[in-house]
Amino acid sequence: MTARNGAASESPAPTLGFSAQADVQDALVHWLRWMESERTLSPHTRAAYSADLGEFLTFLTDYRGGQPPSLNDLSDLKAGDFRAWLSRLSMDGLIGASRARKLASLRNLFRWLDRSGRLHNPAIASLSTPKVKRPLPRPLTEIDADRFLNESELDRDDHWIGKRDRALYTLLYGCGLRISEALGLARKDAPLTDTLRVTGKGRKERMIPVLPAVSEAIRAYLDVCPFTLAPDGPLFVGARGGRLHASIAQHQMQKLRGLMGLPDSATPHALRHSFATHLLADGGDLRSIQDLLGHASLSTTARYTDLENEQLMNVYRSAHPRARKG
Length: 326
Prior knowledge:
By secondary structure, this protein is mainly alpha-helical. It has helices spanning 22-37, 43-63, 71-75, 79-91, 96-115, 142-154, 159-175, 179-183, 212-224, 246-260, 268-281, 286-293, 298-301, 303-319, 321-325, and strands at 195-199, 205-209. It is built from 15 helices and two strands. It has a two-stranded antiparallel sheet. The radius of gyration is 26 Å and the shape is elongated. 27% of the residues are buried. One of its GO terms (molecular function) is DNA binding. Keywords: Cell cycle, Cell division, Chromosome partition, Cytoplasm, DNA integration, DNA recombination, DNA-binding. The active site is at residues 178, 201, 269, 272, 295, 304.
């Protein structure tokens, strides 16, 4: 394949792995190079985009009776042609999330083709993105959450690190924080009183009540921490005194869930889910839980109601005599 002017200074042409008309191949090569140089996307991501477009062009080739499409053909595509492709993906068993991702790849290409002056096709803008069903949160049970907090302190050889881990996980579970919010706290923000001010997504602040168990865990950690923590420095520090990274907390929880026989869904974020789910089960109202979690939309918080209903139905199916009989 021959590139355009300046090819001597360009990286080698990407291997597309599928057949297409020469003008489409040339456009795709430049599009992939643009994503590498301007968007700085990883090779893995660019390969995923290329695979999605390859599947689409293969579909079009079959759809058109075996003739690979040219740029003119792509510009003439109607909304019905795109919908036929999406319908084929659905018949092939792809879930909404996968179809939405492939459509996003196609939109990315067509926007670039439009901006670069190669073709204009407004039909793709009229397509609705396939609905993506967000998975329900997977919290720990109250018993497993309590067991986990105890084990998180005992598993560490260094006494102070065990206290740190328990303080961090207790904070996530007791206040419903995101891991980034907890690790972003400064020493002066240590929740040793009955309230905690947190800056969450979108730089929005919220006030959260602090349980005595949370304050006690934080105080126990600070009492044995071997480092002098500056007021404006991080509250949670690593083994060398620098800010604790989320990957350390995630890795330790992965290790503990294996030792305790907990599911793979037992992550630091699951402690936040557990906070909300257990509040709801104990009579908390959705609006208050929304404020505590810092959700912008009540519909996001309402997923916990769906989870509670699902759990109730599981209990019914396993316990009710008529349900067991089918």
